[in-house]
Design a protein that fits this description.
about 20% strand; about 40% helix; binds adenosine monophosphate; 11 helices; Pantoate--beta-alanine Ligase, Chain: A,domain 2; about 270 residues; six-stranded parallel β-sheet; 2 domains; alpha/beta
């Protein structure tokens, strides 16, 4: 695997690399990321993984400073997964001057759910991914459904700016006990790690009740919020929404339940398609 820290040599190498598939990450890679790399392999000739902890998508007081940076281990994982190219830019390479231009994410997606609790987050995500798209100029890009709202933001970005990139969504990869894999799971204490799968279990119970015909979504959401609180969590939201745009469902649209909650100081998100 070739590792690049600068843009020009990466671009020169990719010029005749065939069909290029991009998988952006913030590093501290786990099995969920690696599965995306394997999926990427099926969609092109060369896989480009990126590792960059993007300051723009963190708010003051969030975990930017303590976000785990493990580049040497990440490079080894990517090499073992058969990834051809790793782009791991410094902050100076990505933001040589302050970033004055941003991608403006529409309010109906940017200010709900994750956006309500992390204002400006999706603007930071969309801006860095737009930059990575311009740097790598991939034919396809993979994003995980674990970050459902992010996946919708980035599909919308590609669609509305007519970018010639195929967006592919990867399924959420979970630990055996159901906990969605996340770099933030490493922040959990041993007892929190034991408690953490409750979030997924409660979402699965909610899904089962909807599949059994229950339609009072507000009541079902409140039950999950209540159960989380009783078990020491601080939930931000639990919401049954339309898969297509995460708006409140009206008719028979395909649904997804999305949730975010803090366990101790660690904020976990999860979702299940219904
Ligand atoms: P991150 O490094 O957390 O920014 O994630 C990089 C990419 O990996 C994003 O597209 C995430 O949605 C995806 N991802 C992270 N965790 C998982 C998981 N457990 N299953 C599937 N995709 C994931």
């Amino acid at each position: 695997m070739k590792i690049f820290h600068e843009i020009a040599p990466l671009r020169a190498t990719l010029r005749d690399a065939g069909r290029v598939v991009l998988v952006p990450t913030m590093g501290n890679l786990h099995e969920g990321h690696i599965r995306l790399m394997h999926d990427a392999r099926k969609h092109g000739d060369k896989v480009v993984a990126t590792v960059f902890v993007n300051r723009l998508q963190f708010r003051p007081g969030e975990d930017f400073d303590k976000y785990p940076r493990t580049l040497a281990a990440d490079a080894k994982c990517l090499e073992d997964a058969g990834v051809e190219y790793l782009f791991a830019p410094s902050e100076d390479v990505m933001y040589p001057t302050p970033q004055y231009f941003h991608v403006d994410v529409p309010d109906q997606l940017a200010t709900i759910l994750e956006g309500e609790f992390r204002p400006g987050h999706f603007r930071g995500v969309a801006t860095v991914v737009m930059k990575l798209f311009q740097i790598v100029q991939p034919d396809a890009a993979l994003f995980g459904k674990k970050d459902y709202q992010q996946m919708l933001v980035l599909s919308g970005l590609v669609r509305e700016f007519n970018l010639p990139i195929e967006v592919i969504a990867g399924d959420t990869i979970r630990a055996e006990d159901g906990l969605a894999l996340s770099s933030r799971n490493g922040f959990l204490s041993a007892s929190e790690r034991q408690e953490a799968p409750r979030l997924h279990r409660l979402l699965m119970d909610l899904v089962a009740r909807i599949q059994a015909g229950e339609r009072d979504f507000a009541k079902l959401e409140a039950v999950v919020m209540d159960q989380l609180r009783k078990n020491g969590w601080s939930p931000d939201y639990v919401a049954v929404r339309r898969r297509a745009d995460l708006q409140v469902p009206l008719g028979d649209d395909p649904l997804v339940v999305v949730a975010a909650a803090k366990l101790g100081t660690t904020r976990l998100i999860d979702n299940v398609e219904i």
